[in-house]
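S1.2 Input.
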Amino acid sequence: MDRLDELCRERGLRLTEQRRIVLEVLDAATDHPCTFEIHRRASVGRRIGVATVYRALNSLASAGLVTRHVFRDGKARYERTGGAPHPHLIDVATGEIVGVEDDGVLARLIEEEARRMGFRLVEFRLKLFGERRPA
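S1.3 Output.
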């Protein structure tokens, strides 16, 4: 059985062709695309409506297969669930969002600090805001 189909079944969700397309777009993404960007990528060579993409994203987010982030620009942006927790660096000039890969070092430090303070960390989200330096 296909892993996507299995994941959906575990979450009580049927894997429709539209949901599969949205998940494939997010699997291939190196950024955190908004709904319209997901639609643009999904519709290359296929017919899929933006309303269908919205519905697919909502059901996938409800099932925990996709994570919805809302940053300062107010747009919802998406990524596949299941990756290691990572901070997001947001360019204040352009709104570009970059996932900061730190090999889990930052996550371990945050977890250790929570433990030191008497907490068991359940989840964390870290947003860093910056400007690109001129070349």
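S1.4 Remarks. Strands lie at 66-70, 76-80, 88-91, 97-99, 127-130.
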